[in-house]
Design a protein that fits this description.
Helix content: 40-55%
Strand order of the largest sheet: 2-3-1-4-7
Number of strands: 7
CATH class: Alpha Beta
CATH topology: Rossmann fold
Bound molecules: BIS(adenosine)-5'-pentaphosphate
Distance between the termini: 13 Å
Order of helices and strands: EHEHHHEHEHEEHEH
Length: about 220
Amino acid sequence: MIRIIMLGAPGSGKGTQAQLLSKYFLIPFISAGEILRQEIKKNDKTKNYIQNTINKGKLVKNSFIIQLIKKKIKKKKYCNGFILDGFPRTIEQAESLKKNINIQYIIYLKIKHDSIINRIQGRLIHEPSGRTYHKIFNPPKQKNKDDITGELLHKRKDDNKKIILTRLKEYEKYTKPLIKWFRKEIKKNKIKLLEINSNKSITDINKKIIHYINNFKK
Ligand code: AP5
């Protein structure tokens, strides 16, 4: 059983690494942002609230995302472990997770803020699956098409410079304090924290994470 949390600023590579780790360790990944984007498509009551919040670059209410994640991780598919990308992002979210499950690994991707804008502006996503690419750093095999389905790739609406700056402010205000909170938790519980420089290549980062986790599994 492996449960991993991916932590880091917007564009730090959480989703990219979660997808690669999922393939390597054969466990599913859960993206909080993706759950919210899917929710926009299927839930008329909450659609406007989620869309407006994401498009402002703000975090949705704790109670709202907590109930969505709780519901998700109860599913049978996740009973042998999972990789959580983008949750928790606040101390309140982390406290609620702690009440429900144990986490073994936290992977904290550290990135310089000036790299974030380039990454986010070049990102392309395959909307139905959430697969992520980058025009330069991680291009699809065929221009603008998903590698698996061949369907068209799109830019996320919140991937523009103005919204990114708000997302970064939210990160500094709510998620940075969470890192301190986790450092205290590590001392009390058996959680392992890997802090990794995310200004390296996707492959290098991936190798480091796998090496780190495999060392503990031995
Ligand atoms: P979400 O979709 O989670 O967005 P985010 O946290 O802002 O993170 P990103 O998806 O932008 O970045 P990432 O770290 O996954 O980077 P990626 O791997 O794609 O959330 C969207 C919104 O939903 C939030 O703003 C909020 O409103 C709401 N929300 C979500 N979770 C919430 C929560 N828990 N509580 C409240 N609200 C919540 O990489 C980015 C790009 O860089 C890609 O193009 C990739 O190919 C490229 N790249 C990746 N790694 C590298 C590398 N090493 N070198 C070069 N390029 C790279």
